[in-house]
Each structure stands twice: as structure tokens, then as C-alpha cells.
Amino acid sequence: MTGQPRIPLDDLTSDALDALYDERDAARATARRLNYRAQQAESKNATFERAVGQWDVNERGTYIPHTSLRAIGIAAGTDLLGSVRHLKHFQRVEQAEARVRELKAENAHYEEKVVGDLNEANTGLQRQAARAEATVARVRQTVDAGPVGACCAHLIRAALNPPAT
């Protein structure tokens, strides 16, 4: 298979067998090293893909988040951000972005709460309006049914005060 002459097993010396074992062990060690390096390369590639996935590329330009640059630098084994003059600016932008996310979440929470409160208040107002309409209907019915005049004020008052239920 390797192009070397085949040695009959009866003629195999312990030195030749030791050499074969050494060759096998060296091949295994090389395979382990290559396997380890392949895993490291895959891990770095995954880190780079995640970092680049955070980039915002559009017609206006490219925005690269500070965290993305940091991750790429760590994976590459170098300090990419140590040489960035405007690092404070990057940090402030990220802090502002985080605050915007927090405010949006707070806003969504308050909108949900306010809408709920408004719905409850609206339901209460609808009940009050229904009671008022019922009172007006009773007053009209009382006025239409009875004599009209100053002496009938007690009838109108009675209509305005609904019976206890």
C-alpha cells in the first residue's frame, strides 16, 4: 500500500515492529493535532460569523458594533480596540442603544398597562352612561304618565333616585 516492499511476518524483527509502532503513534499524534487545530478553526469561524452577523450593512454604510470588534479581536488573538481612537464614542453608542432598548421595553409595558387602565375606565364610563340613560328614561316615563306641574316635583325626584336593587 505504501510502496514499500512487504516483509513476511516470519522475518519481522522487533526493531522493525517497534519502528511500525512508532510510525503509528506519530500518525495518531499528528491526527490529534490536526483534529484539535480543525476544531479551533471551526470555533474561530463560528465566532467570526456571529460577530459579523451583528453588523448592519445597508445603502447608507456599515455599522459595526463594538462588541463585534471585541469578539473578533479576542478570536484573532489581538487587541483590535486598543488602537481605536474613538473607543469612548463606541461605548457611548452601545450604552445609548442599550438604553433605547430598555426604554422601548418600558414603553411597551406602560402602553399595555395604560391601555388596560383605559379599557377599565371606559367600561366604567359606559356603565355610568347606561345608568344615566335609564334615569332619563324613567323621568320621561314618569312625566309622560303623570300630571305635569309644580306639584309633581316629588314624582320627578323619585324617578331620578332609582329604586334600590
Comma- or semicolon-separated keywords:
mainly alpha; 165 residues; 72% helix; 4 helices
What's a concise summary of this model?
Helix content is 72%, strand content 4%. The protein contains four helices and two strands.
Question: What does the model show?
Answer:
This protein is mainly α and 165 residues long. The protein has a domain of 76 residues. The protein is built from four helices and two strands, in the order αββααα. Strands 1-2 form a two-stranded antiparallel sheet. Strand 1 and strand 2 form a beta hairpin. Helix 1 runs antiparallel to helix 2 and helix 3 runs antiparallel to helix 4. The chain is elongated.
Overall geometry: elongated
Query: What order do the helices and strands follow?
Result: HEEHHH
Task: Provide the spatial order of strands within the biggest beta sheet.
Answer: 1-2
In terms of DSSP E residues, the strand content is under 5%
Query: How large is the radius of gyration?
Result: 43 Å
Contiguous helical run count = 4
What is the oligomeric state here?
single chain
Largest sheet: 2 strands, antiparallel
Helix content percent band: over 70%
Mean pLDDT metric:
80
Number of strands: 2
Low-confidence stretches: none
Gap between N and C termini, in Å?
104 Å
Label the structural class: mainly alpha
